## 1
Amino acid sequence: MPQVSPRGTYLQVSEALRQQIEADDTGALPSEAALMNTHGVSRNTVRRALKALEAEGMVQSAPGIGWRVVRGGDRRSLAERMTDLIAEDSLTVGDAYPSEAKLCERFGVSRTAVRRVLAQMEGNGLLATVHGKGRTVCALPTSTVRP
């Protein structure tokens, strides 16, 4: 890796891993230690890169095993899937949005990943948190045409 990066070293590592995943069919990623040696970065940088790929739905953590490549299935990012949930579940403005626990179970991701996307959705004005009541839908997402 270059010494100084305007883009963020973890993003460069995640891009390199994305290319490796797309070129390889193994389904398993090297260990974090091997990735640290390969890219010459810290464990924290490797973990940030893997978390970025996890948020995109490309990899998932398998406790006791390491990181696995997600093959087939839904290739949308977690943010897209959680935003699309509003339309899929026919939620309207004022309806309750599913809890963090239900979202973790539904999408098979960590609570941290879910919280990160919920914060984005609140920042975009789609959701609002009502103390003691959870999150509610504030606005309906605009439809986007995907290629």
## 2
Amino acid sequence: MHRSPAQAPTAAERVRSILATADSMTVVSDGRHTEVHRLDGTLAMSHIHLHAPAEGAAAPPAGRIPVRLDLTDVAPTPVRDRLRARVTLTGVLAAPYDPESMDSTCMEFGQGVLEDATGRTFVAFEELEATELDPLATSEADLLTHLVDAHGELVPLLMRLVRPLPDSGVQRALPVGMDRYGLTLRLEYPHTHRNARLPFPTPVHHSAHAGSRIQALLAAARRLSPTGHPL
């Protein structure tokens, strides 16, 4: 049976990217809310090690401390409603969470939840463990801001690829996301907005190849008129 190529990341891939790039999070444990903001160049999750849940554990083992990690995924470009997703991880710790500790904190994974505009999706530890980090995850912000700041005139050209074609009510269009499978544009109307997905011809396997994929989209757009018909 032939499988069509993926055009968007799975929930596990998105969670993996958010965990790898978030520079802040909220840790809720032992009745305390701790805001973690890493200002030294490290990432919020860099000192927390996730490991597999104990088999058959229906409740936290005696002496273990329940913990919840809340992370948000925010668009790096100045779009309306910049919150793209929320990630919540629950589990247990062997000792109280210490935000000042330089040692790695081991967290026994319980459950992962991704919440975005499409709804709520649960992600298991096995899914995260089997998922490779998107090669564009750590460079996405730079790629998108460069596209907006240095090549903003190309966005109207890319809109020729949007299906269905946007009507004249679009007030602004900006790139809002990029991953190994494609580019996402945010189309803003007077009172609402929607996202338009532009899949790459083939997935990106290295961040150095992002430029060639964007060029392929632009080449396809140039072959179309502003009304979406071949020239």
## 3
Amino acid sequence: MARTAREVLADAVGGLAPADGANPLVPLIATGEAPREVFAALALEQHHIIPGDRRSFLHLADRAAPQPAVAAFFRFLAEGETEALHRLTALAAACGLDEDAVRAYEPQAGCQAYPAYAAWLALGAEPVDAVVALTANFAAWSGYCGTVSRAMRDHYGFDDRACGFFDFFAEPSPEAEELALAAVTSGLTTGLLSEPTAHRYGRLIQSYELMFWETLAVR
């Protein structure tokens, strides 16, 4: 029996999920043990990550133009990055960061490995393979954001506006799920999807995700 898009994505999300305890920082945030300064560092790094990811998603959408369902997935992601950057402003302000501080900040290589690899995918990956890899990563990222969002309120005294960046990514997106399913269905129909390659991409991007948190943890 032919594979369905739902099976492909479920296997990727489950098979590429980070191991328990792989993230060294989020558990410390969850219990309030991480220093408050980590949120400022995170906001500063994300000011570099989000614009880069948005450009990568737009480039993937352009490359996927002959596959409208795949292109639609990446256009949706690019729109989400625009909203995320808007929400990040409140977090930066809550951390005492002004525009000069954001502009002067020098990003850390370990935090910027993720968007660098996203750019590599944008240049060279089959777009539908990137859909599978990124969907697996977003499942892990969403879980981390939900934990961080709760802890910011419970242990660090941040208000709802400051938590809005993490709230945005923690909330399930039925539209994103439907777009991913449509994109993968297109990849299966056209034969362009390679699950082994998609899983390789996903394994690497999950590793770069963890590198982001590890770098923040040792600052």
## 4
Amino acid sequence: MIYSKYIRQIRSKPWPSQFRHNRPRAIELLKARGIARPSELATAGVTAATIARMKEKGLVVQLGRGLYQLPDAPIDTHHSLAEAAKRVPKGVVALTSALAFHELTDTIPSMVWLAIGPKDRQPRPTNPPMQFVRFSSERLQEGVETHTIEGCAVKIFSPAKTVVDLFRYRRSAGTRYRHSTGLNLALEGMREALRTPKAKPSEIADFARKAGVWKAMQPYMDAMIANG
């Protein structure tokens, strides 16, 4: 029985020639995508055993559970967003994280804020820490931009959409707002977006009307525009 188990382990590992053949594929994929999941590597014909050997030899680095990167890959300031995008492909970087990415706040988020659909599965706690908010399918598709971070395509809400979403989550009471970002951050985001300008007043107003928060936002915007 022990002998049979040993034979199965041997057969499950690629021969040295297979390892040499798979290794360039893995390196090429990781150079192109920055960070890769096991499923992406498998689709490219790279076996789990090859990745394990590359990890042992220091040819790849494992970023927590199920993410791999080359050891000499350049690390971007927004590395955590790239990791989050790989872990939650359907998610969109939102609220405080989106505001920080667009350089519209001095606040440094302690976690990555991700918007997911109403029925999307919420991943288990991972590294980097992520805070999830559920958006309707319509809200989740509006104002989405795609940015490349460390070779990864990362979906991030636009500045105008982010400002409006911050107002939607500005309250401090109620089940939906138990992780509220607060009014001050929403006002800071609006002020900086208008000052830069990274968002036109008409863009913000359009998103606000669709989201049903224009009545609450208009007095603040009018005052900011009037004060220059």
